[in-house]
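Subject: Sanity check before I submit

Could someone independently write out the structure tokens for this chain? I want to compare against mine line by line before I put it in a report. The sequence has 224 residues.
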Amino acid sequence: MSVPRHQPTEARTIGILGAGRVGTAVARQALKSGYDVRIATSKPADDIALLVEIVTPGAVAVAAAEATGADIVVVAVPLNKYRTLAPDLLAGRTVIDAMNYWAPIDGEIDEFENDERTSSEIVQAYLSGSDVVKTLNHIGYHDLEEDGRLPGSEDRRALALAGGNNDAKALVAGFIDRLGYDPVDAGPLESGRAFQPGTEIFNGSHSATQLRSILAADREPARA
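---
Independent answer below. Compare away.
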């Protein structure tokens, strides 16, 4: 039986799985942007309540089942722990994959070394009932809170996103815009390869025009 999609036209609540540097930075930026933010980890909500209150004031520590009920769920756990996520809780949800596979930092993981798919495609296969959108992985957590600008600002930074469901991407694009960045649709989930670690996009800061140009060049077939 197919799982009905929870696809509002605009997100109001953001659930974050993971309370590390990336997860808490996203939480703080989302709070500044007017979202209702819920944070969950593998620990009971009471165990992280004080941490959440201090590090992300305004967010609420909750159980995973409540965080995954948000309009958008941001997965910000170490990639090697993605199988600790509960596919049933995330079924029907729009999920942002902010994780990266970066062997020089995290060590080699056979599952990602020996698979032609991107890490996000592997995550999507595991979360088969969810709509996974790859983004927020190619901006540092410090930069996320410092580089945001109002729409129309000349120095506004752009962030790429990739996914297989256009409605989910539109929802996430609205979220990225409210965080202070120009969203640029890179295409289907496999297009996220263009902004994985080591790429030009991952390594730099770009405007929307620059980002589209890099993505277009990446899609061009190599010349003989």
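---
OP: Matches mine. For the report I'm noting this point. The domain at 13-219 is CATH 3.40.50.720 (Rossmann fold).
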